[in-house]
Design brief:
218 residues, alpha/beta, Rossmann fold, 31% helix, globular, binds S-adenosylmethionine
Length: 218
């Protein structure tokens, strides 16, 4: 349930390794060129007004934001990955800042953003339901969550593979869970307006199914 006050206190601790932070962009390099960079751009073209991005990572979304935003806040609790963000990659003229904050405990007032962005984050947060509830809380009525996430396969050999590899993958990928029903989690807290599905080309089979789209608070 949305709360009426922003939670206070330090961000939730995240699992992060120096190696994971250093390898993040190189590991994604091929996949970005095989379509993910274009997908980021298409999704983020719908960002409006004041924008909050949760789990911003190394800032791969920055160059894809429209140039007419009122403000852009990147919330990233990880020190090692966060220090790789280059705010100069944001569109010229968009006031942009970085906050050390967890998605489950956003230090922002209710109804303070028009758009929340989550790309490849709900796989990794400790409590994805809480993160979606927080996104809904900080969005203005009618505001939108733009999401791009890898999700658990519904059935078949890929589902079996994900179940078998979930612990090994989480150990390799700094806590990322490859088997989550992330679309169900978003649906439990918001209304999905549009959704598309595809494959994460250039990445291992365990994270292939992708879902992206828009959800709203009303
Ligand atoms: C797979 S990376 C995605 C980075 C970026 N969003 C992208 O699209 O490339 C997952 C990110 O979620 C962050 N993260 C982990 N736990 C988190 C939490 N509880 N709240 C917010 N972000 C979290 C990690 O530090 C990491 O930057």
């Amino acid at each position: 349930m949305p709360t009426t006050e922003a939670p206070t206190g330090p961000p939730v601790d995240v699992i992060e390794s120096r190696l994971g932070a250093a390898l993040y962009d190189p590991v994604l390099w091929v996949a970005e060129r095989l379509g993910i960079a274009a997908l980021r751009r298409e999704l983020l073209a719908e960002a409006r007004g004041a924008v909050l991005e949760i789990g911003a990572g190394t800032g791969l979304n920055l160059p894809h934001y429209p140039g007419d935003l009122n403000q852009l806040v990147l919330a990233e609790p990880g020190h090692r990955i966060g220090e790789r963000i280059d705010l100069d990659r944001a569109p010229t003229g968009v006031p942009t800042r970085l906050e050390r904050a967890s998605a489950e405990r956003l230090p922002f007032a209710d109804a303070s953003f028009d758009t929340v962005v989550s790309t490849f984050v709900l796989c990794t947060v400790g409590d994805p339901r809480r993160a979606v509830a927080e996104a809904a809380r900080v969005l203005r009525p009618g505001g939108r969550l733009l999401f791009l996430e890898h999700v658990g396969a519904e059935s078949g050999w890929r589902r079996a593979l994900q179940r078998r590899s979930v612990r090994a993958w989480a150990a390799f990928a700094d806590g990322c869970r490859c088997d989550r029903d992330t679309v169900g989690t978003i649906e439990a807290g918001m209304r999905i307006e549009s959704i598309a599905r595809g494959r994460w080309r250039g990445m291992p089979a365990v994270v292939k199914p992708l879902a992206w789209g828009r959800a709203t608070t009303v």
